[in-house]
Write a structure and sequence with these properties.
Blueprint lengths: L1 H7 L5 H6 L4 H10 L3 H14 L3 H9 L2 H7 L3 E2 L1 H4 L4 H8 L4 E8 L5 H10 L1 H8 L3 E12 L2 E11 L4 E11 L2 H17 L9 E8 L2 H8 L6 E10 L3 H6 L3 H10 L1
Helix pairs in contact: 3-4, 3-5, 11-12
Length: about 260
């Protein structure tokens, strides 16, 4: 209780109200693990809005969700292509990087395999994407000029009231990725978007990006596109796996000790 008083004695009206809205265990986690006042307020707000359990909260703090969500300089065309305040809201929705550490994949994994791995853990995937995302489909088919095209992942964002198209790239960001996404967004706006919905947003998720290259690729485009990196948990090389004891062997060893 003394720690609680010392941490929040000079804060505004929001913090005491927020503290009362989450369980004591979550409050203790935030007090012990987060020392920055703004970061504490972020985790308080996010816990309330997203209904994070204690374990989920710990995970978000350990993966530095505050920095990835609030402080990182993001590469987007949201504020230049969307009306205010929608552009700012979309900018706040984006993370950079996204941490998909609930799947284990090798360095040579292909895009379709990454997509399948994320869909196999859809709940965790949506949790990392953030509040408001509703899944609509994978390899979403659109037809333009008599040709078929397939978008990796399609979502609807309840609070932004718009479709969100996501393209996964297992390598570096390339300028042509922005052109392809711009094409998809034009098609989705004309063929799929409903009259009362806001313009469709595109997110390109890459293993790495050159920020300057991404900025030049988005410059002049009329559609709202964001470029973010993502991180995966990679599997150990097979040679190293063979050298490590199995779970059964570890359990036997512990019993013997």
């Amino acid at each position: 209780m003394r720690m609680l008083y010392l941490a929040y004695r000079e804060t505004g009206e929001f913090v005491p109200q927020a503290v009362a809205q989450i369980p004591w265990g979550q409050n203790i986690v935030i007090l012990e693990k987060v020392k920055d006042a703004q970061a504490r307020e972020y985790y308080l707000r996010a816990s309330i809005e997203n209904g994070w359990s204690r374990d989920v909260l710990v995970h978000q703090i350990e993966t530095d969700a505050y920095t990835r969500h609030a402080l990182t300089a993001k590469t987007t065309s949201f504020t230049t292509t969307l009306p205010a305040p929608l552009g700012e809201q979309a900018e706040g929705m984006l993370k950079d990087p996204y941490v998909f550490d609930f799947v284990m994949l090798e360095e040579t994994t292909k895009e379709l395999e990454v997509e399948r791995a994320l869909l196999a853990r859809l709940r965790d995937f949506l949790l990392e994407m953030g509040k408001g995302f509703a899944f609509l489909g994978s390899q979403y088919r659109i037809e333009v000029g008599g040709e078929e095209f397939f978008i990796n992942l399609l979502f609807f964002h309840r609070f932004l009231r718009c479709l969100v198209a996501i393209e996964l790239k297992t390598g570096d960001f390339k300028p042509e990725h922005a052109g392809k996404m711009n094409f998809y967004l034009n098609a989705l706006d004309d063929l799929v978007r409903l009259p009362h919905e806001n313009p469709t947003i595109g997110i390109i998720l890459c293993k790495s990006k050159n920020k300057v290259v991404a900025e030049y690729a988005l410059k002049g485009l009329t559609k709202p596109i964001g470029v973010s990196e993502y991180q995966l948990t990679r599997q150990l090389p097979k040679e190293l796996q063979k050298q490590l004891p199995s779970v059964t062997e570890l359990e036997q060893q512990l019993q013997e000790e």
